[in-house]
Automatic annotation (TrEMBL):
Residues 20-34 have a biased composition (Polar residues). The chain holds residues 380 to 743 of 743 of the full protein. This is AAA+ ATPase domain-containing protein. Residues 116-261 form the AAA+ ATPase domain. Belongs to the AAA ATPase family. It comes from Saitoella complicata (strain BCRC 22490 / CBS 7301 / JCM 7358 / NBRC 10748 / NRRL Y-17804).
Length: 364
């Protein structure tokens, strides 16, 4: 069903006795069985068992602490995101289905000429839903979802980062089907800055590209496509022009995630207001749609949150004694007030840059 959460590597590895730092697994895998080294639920049949054996085998050589880091910090836990949670972006949803989800769910149909892409890039202004899309894909593709921000690779894990990247791909292959989501990919794949480029970040980038290539060559060397580990690198960036050419070419699909169209803003506003007491008429909502031209999805969320504070702000100190049912509904005026404080985070000129890059390099 579409509500099935992505499997997590944590569950399977816990089942293998790989230490997971005592951090509880996400709720849907937190059966006590999985942490006692017993079978993971749903893995009783032999097919699944051999997958676990594969995991165990390929983890030889992976540093225990690094495996722990991957399980605890990189495998995504938490609420699955559904398509319906994401307003608009129909073209992007369609592209993700075709490029990622169908190949993951029907590997038998996607071989030979239809061999699936190993890389897809989502680019566009910040706060437009790229991360949400990636999480929805993980939910729909019933895959293990690894998520890492490239800037944390270069800062937080510096020193360990090459090892981490190697281990990440190893675990992802073992836990196939897997999606490796890399946010802020620009900071990992930036065009070589010649002398100025740090040796360590150059090495990290090279390691990432080598690991990424190994996915494709593994596929080419095996007759039986269905046996192949299915691992896709899904990446997001607000700075697509910073990605160097070699890396750009590997993202076979480059999908523009634009600012929301009027219909999308309408959908999002209605979605945000659906469980809120409010007195906005359909005409006023339509006017809000006009007024939020240039706002990103996250700007609109911020706007609605700020406007929702309006009824409380107008109470002043009475807030502390007013019963809940006597709080006035949100009004159009609350939104108008908030529009002056919550401003769009992308400028018109900034937007032009994205459109230009999309024309030149985007997938259609
Ligand atoms: P990005 O990765 O593009 O920077 P996110 O996916 O992290 O943006 O979105 C940030 C927040 O903005 C989300 O948590 C959500 O509240 C809101 N948002 C952005 N785009 C949308 C959308 N299309 N539909 C619904 N909410 C959105």
């Amino acid at each position: 069903s579409s509500n099935t959460p992505p499997r997590t590597a944590g569950a399977a590895l816990a089942g293998l006795g790989v230490p997971t730092n005592g951090t509880p697994a996400p709720s849907y895998t937190s059966s006590p069985d999985t942490r006692n080294g017993a079978a993971v639920p749903g893995t009783e049949n032999t097919d699944e068992m051999s997958k676990e054996e594969k995991v165990l085998k390929s983890l030889v050589g992976v540093d225990e602490n690094i495996a722990k880091t991957i399980m605890n910090e990189i495998v995504v836990k938490g609420d699955p995101v559904q398509w319906e949670d994401i307003a608009g972006l129909e073209a992007a949803k369609r592209a993700l289905k075709e490029t990622v989800i169908y190949p993951f769910l029907r590997p038998d149909l996607f071989s030979g000429l239809r061999e699936p892409a190993r890389g897809m890039l989502l680019f566009g202004p910040p706060g437009t839903g790229k991360t949400m899309l990636a999480r929805a894909v993980a939910t729909q593709a019933k895959s293990t979802f690894f998520s890492i921000s490239a800037s944390s690779l270069t800062s937080k894990y510096l020193g360990e980062s090459e090892k981490l990247v190697r281990a990440l791909f190893t675990v992802a292959k073992a836990m196939s089907p897997s999606i490796i989501f890399v946010d802020e990919i620009d900071s990992l794949m930036s065009a070589r800055k010649g002398e100025g480029e740090h040796e360590s970040s150059r090495r990290l980038k090279t390691e990432f590209l080598i690991q990424w290539s190994s996915l494709a060559s593994a596929a080419a060397g095996n007759e039986n496509d269905e046996e192949q580990p299915r691992v896709l690198v899904l990446a997001a960036t607000n700075l697509p022009w910073d990605i160097d050419e070699a890396a750009r070419r590997r993202f076979v699909r480059r999908q523009y995630i634009p600012l929301p169209e009027p219909e999308t803003r309408m959908e999002q506003l209605n979605h945000l207001l659906r469980r809120q007491k409010h007195g906005l008429t359909p005409e006023q909502i339509a006017e809000l749609v006009e007024l939020t031209d240039g706002y990103s999805g996250s700007d609109i969320t911020a706007l609605a949150k700020d406007a929702a504070m309006g009824p409380l702000r107008s109470l002043g100190e009475d807030l502390l004694i007013t019963p809940r049912d006597q709080i006035r509904p949100m009004s159009f005026d609350d939104f108008k007030m908030s529009l002056s404080t919550v401003r769009p985070s992308v400028s018109k000129e900034g937007l032009k840059e994205f459109e230009k890059w999309d024309k030149e390099f985007g997938s259609r």
